[in-house]
Amino acid sequence: MARTDVQLMLDVKAGDEQSFELLLRKYRTPLVNFLYRMVRNTAVAEDLAQEVFLRVYRARQEYAPSAKFTTWMFRIATNLALNSMRDNRHRQMEISIDQSMETGEDEQPPLEVPDRAPTVEQELVARSRAELIMKAIHSLPEKQRAAVLLHKYQEMDYDEIARVLECSESALKSLLFRAYETLRVELAPFVNHSARV
Amino acid sequence: MFGKSNNDKSGGKPCAAMDSKLVEYLDGRARPAERHAVEEHLSGCASCKTRAEEFRALWSTLDDLPEIVPSREFDVSLRTRIAAEPARRNFWDWMPSPRFAFAMTALVLLSVWLSSGPRLVKSPAQLSPAIQASKVSTEKDFGMIQDLPELENYDVISKFDALSELPGPPAASTEELQKETR
């Protein structure tokens, strides 16, 4: 039977390094993606993600399962991201499709585009769409951005997100509504209209 | 319930209190009573209904955002950083060895046991002069209270001269006692 995150972390506390490896493998990608979508820079996102794991590792002896492991981990990640953006320690290098096309650079961030043997045009359209979505998300205020990313992409419960963002559930729901309202307007030309309530 | 609805298709402000209900409703996490209230409102408010549809479409669009893959160096770099962490020492790390810790513990316990052991009784010859003197005084006091029954006899007390020896138990006083009791 697979161990829960709390059990894995308690095993890490007991000195089991393998359990830490399991947690690393499980949350490495979601964490990097969350941070990338927050700070919009792959290098910074990876650096911050490593810092999150490092802090988790450092705190292993004092670990007490008072909340879900993901709540704790994403709270660390959110705080690091917010601090990074505010401190502006890292130079913001926007990944611009337009710039890369003009300069003819081949290097792109390794995006996982669904492998349906897309044509070049389709891939360009997909990248352009992704870039616009990223830009719209990044235009949100930081707390709204974090709320949307945790709600939409991490599929966390409201109470969990509220704990990460240190606000009430009702405040969080208002936050999410305002964020989605903004994105609805920003992305109106690109929205998939096949969905129905 | 959510305020006056308007017919302006999602262009106007959302109805009051929908902002805290709509997302939860679309998530499928609303409680039955709240779900019913939202559905009732949506059936009568074109603006909010359109907004709800557009939220759903937006969520579908957001799914198009691809995931990025962490670099191959991620794990290596993390492990390097972890390896560079100073080793944490706890209390037991300061002990030279478990044997030493055991020996120290045994020594402490032995000391406690020895200090709480019974005291040896000394012979009179070994007693100090001060102790001897107090011993004599104690015996003397005991001799005095040995004669206590006489001291409780009124006839004895009334004739008692503090500076003289205590008289022996008078026979007469005993006979008188017997007479009284008859």
Structure overview:
- The complex is a heterodimer of chains A (197) and B (182).
- By secondary structure, chain A is mostly helical.
- Chain A has 2 domains: 1-91, Orthogonal Bundle (Rna Polymerase Sigma Factor, Chain: A), CATH 1.10.1740.10; 116-197, Arc Repressor Mutant, subunit A (Orthogonal Bundle), CATH 1.10.10.
- Chain A contains 9 helices and 1 strand; from the N terminus they run αααααβαααα.
- In chain A, α2 (17-39) packs antiparallel against α3 (42-58) and α4 (69-87) crosses α8.
- Chain A starts with a helix and ends in an 11-residue tail after the last helix.
- Residues 95-108 of chain A have low confidence and may be disordered.
- In chain B, α2 (32-44) packs across α3 (46-62).
- Chain B starts with 21 loop residues before the first helix and ends with a helix.
- Among the domains of chain B are: 1-66, no CATH class; 146-182, no CATH class.
- Chain B has helices at 22-27, 32-44, 46-62, 73-83, 98-115, 129-146, 148-151, 154-159, 171-181; one strand spanning 67-68.
- Chain B has 182 residues and is an all-alpha fold.
- β1 (111-112) of chain A pairs antiparallel with β1 (67-68) of chain B, so a sheet runs across the interface.
Order of helices and strands of chain A: HHHHHEHHHH
Whole-Å distance between the termini of chain A? 38 Å
How many individual domains of chain A? Answer: 2
CATH architectural category of the largest domain in chain A: Orthogonal Bundle
